[in-house]
Amino acid sequence: MTIRVYYEDTDAGGVVYHSQYLNFCERARSEIFFSQGSSPHRDNQFFVVKSLSCNYIKSAKFADILEVKTKVIQIKKASMLLKQEIFRDGKVIFNMDVTVVYLIDGKPSKIPDFHLDIFKNH
Known about the structure:
The chain has helices at about 20-35, 115-120; strands spanning about 1-5, 40, 45-55, 65-75, 80-90, 90-105, 105-110. Strands 1, 2, 3, 4, 5, 6 and 7 form a 7-stranded antiparallel beta sheet that branches. It is α+β, with helices and mostly antiparallel strands. The N and C termini lie close together (about 10 Å). The protein is built from 2 helices and 7 strands. The chain is elongated.
């Protein structure tokens, strides 16, 4: 997913806020669903972030064009481990491992096949 850095994403010096990288990755995960005509949220069923580990390598700045890539590392019954990387000019500037858990009515539940298919086709 391609993202342009807007002024609202930055501090007064034009450098992207650290928390904004997480927002960029969240958008990219949602876009995986939207690009396939689906939604990451259906009624009382959705994914939540359980844990994440991130590395800030270089700063993005106002007006940069960034590319966010998401790769499935591991799928379990009710969770997935994803690797997300943000690139600028073909070079990684941020990466994170994020574990998401599928909930139905607020309880961890088996990820439905239609959601697994979305990630397998991504």
